[in-house]
Design brief:
Order of helices and strands: HHHEEHEHEEHEEEEHHHEEEEE
Mean pLDDT: 92
Number of strands: 14
CATH architecture of the largest domain: 2-Layer Sandwich
Helix content: 25-40%
Strand content: 25-35%
Length: about 325
Amino acid sequence: METVVLVLQSLKAARGGWVSGEALASSLGLSRNAVWKAVNALRRRGYAVAASPRRGYRLAAAPDQPLPEEVFPDPVPELVGLEPGSTFHLEYFPELPSTNDHLRRLGRQGAPEGTVVVAEQQTAGRGRRGREWASPPGLGLWLSVLLRPPLPARDAPLLALMAAAAVRAAAEQVAAVDARVKWPNDVMVPQGKVCGVLAELDAELDRIRACILGVGLNVNQTASDFPPHLAGKAASLRMAAGRPVHRAELLRWVLRHLGARYRQVLVEGFEPLLEEVRAFSATLGRPVTVEEADRTWPGLAEDLAPDGALLVRPASGGAPVAVYAADVSIRPA
């Protein structure tokens, strides 16, 4: 464990109290100079560390940033899959064009399952079908997670649903909001859309070599932070909760819920996940408009198929139609 994290853990253990430099050095097996350098490194990362010649150091405040030491403050590894070494490893960047693109490069270089790339800001974030995703600094969580599931490529849409279910559960737990999954890959609150998931594959027909789950989650925006064309459509957890939401804690629980559902899928298959999505769906039982490449038609969203397709009964009558890749919007009842 790096020296900076060791010093940070010791300062946090003091719960706002003073710790002398000598005590830090002695307990951690470091030199006084190494402690001083670690304190300065923490300050550069945004931590407010007070210093007193006679009393030592005190952690006055931690930044609201998804830094690895804030997301996972305990040294116990956070599990991802079933393999013993399958744990989350978080890499933080102040700015990236796209976390998905950066993680794809890492994956092709052999990055292990559970590698997470999170950026304070994306300059070229994107959603489904190449749509732009605004990713301003300090207001949301912009991240990508690398999985290497022993599954066929056709299961990719189900993995996107899995990530959306994990975000929904974390939002409910941390922000205490009524969050729902909108098919195929969004999370909604009553005020609008707060999250989108983008699953991208490196795969053969019979197996997935790597799946990158990109998550864009609006956390602390106010209504004025969104451009006019998104008014009434985009929302944030802060808007739903009526208070700011701590991003590092939220990310911790997003990843924990994602890991739990991923392990469940590997052991039990996707049916328990589909039952969860059915129970917390923003789409099922609602009138919808389906926009396909060659036609647009209304219907009623009735269920999810075992492969994750949305079953929509056309308003014109007939049997439910399995919808896979269309844009589906909810119509007023």
